[in-house]
Amino acid sequence: MARRFFIGGNWKCNGTLKSIEDLLSTLNGADLAKPLPEVVVAPTYVHLAWVKSKLREDFAVAAQNSWIKGSGAYTGEISPEILKDLGIPWVILGHSERRTLCSESSQVVADKTKYALDKGLAVILCVGETLEQREAGKTFDTVAEQLKPVAGALSSWTAVVVAYEPVWAIGTGKVATPEQAQEVHAYIRSWLTDNVSPEVSDTTRLIYGGSVTAKNSAELGSAKDIDGFLVGGASLKPDFVEIIKSAPQA
Ligand SMILES: O=C(CO)COP(=O)(O)O
């Protein structure tokens, strides 16, 4: 079945009013061929509602995280209910920066994913190995360990996109080769067949993240099991438009 190509821009902890205004005018002014891939940008929480109100209507917005439970006495957190109320359709969960810097375990990521989906958000679920894990031959085991609690928690995957982001490729300029990325995407697809269902495996979009640029996106995007990208640094630049343009036409 055809999976619609998906391009996410994770702005991380970046942006000023001026830089975002400039970026919005680049994105909104871009002349893009139809049919468009699905395009979703993730500004910081404080910029989210403003970006949503200014962004072209054929792109959507995502939060970069959400709380594990509903609204209440959780200082500093943002619940899926609040995001839903603001009309935010997507959330990124399990990014390696949160797993590492905020000690989010795979079980916490699974519980957050379930809660966000239950409240009607769609989830970009990130998985990926460190360089140490790759060099120890543990890439597949690491990804399986990250997916397992999610598979245990979810009853439906229709609103999930899985982002494979090898930690060693994030923000390093060291992009996975199309063969390296394809190998792990194929593994994830077979893992989903065996542990969830052939239908989920066939329909779930698997996107790649880690030093994606306008120079490498076309080649990566032509790999069989790569259904899109989660772009960090290059999503803050006009490069992002070129990455969108490089998406394979459906
Ligand atoms: O972490 C990423 C997207 O979530 C990738 O970041 P870079 O594209 O900057 O390597």
Structure description:
- There is one protein chain.
- With 250 residues, this protein is of the alpha/beta class.
- The protein has a single domain (6-245), classed as TIM Barrel, CATH 3.20.20.70.
- 42% of the residues lie in helices and 16% in strands.
- It contains 11 helices and 8 strands.
- An 8-stranded parallel β-barrel has the order 1-2-3-4-5-6-7-8, surrounded by 5 helices.
- Helix 2 links the parallel strand 2 and strand 3.
- Helix 5 (106-118) runs parallel beside helix 7 (139-153) and helix 7 (139-153) runs parallel beside helix 8 (178-195).
- The N and C termini lie close together (12 Å).
- The model has no long low-confidence stretch (mean pLDDT 97).
- It binds 1,3-dihydroxyacetonephosphate (13P).
Tell me the radius of gyration.
Answer: 17 Å
How many structural domains? 1
Please give the count of helices. 11
- Give a quick account of the main beta sheet: strands, pairing sense, barrel closure: 8 strands, parallel, barrel
The H/E string reads EHEHEHEHHEHHEHHEHEH
Terminus-to-terminus distance? 12 Å
Contiguous uncertain segments of 5+ residues: none
CATH superfamily membership, which one?
A: Aldolase class I
Helix content: 40-55%
CATH class wording: Alpha Beta
Overall geometry comes to: globular
CATH architecture: Alpha-Beta Barrel
CATH topology: TIM Barrel
Pathway: Carbohydrate biosynthesis
Keywords: Isomerase
Protein name: Triosephosphate isomerase
Subunit structure: Homodimer.
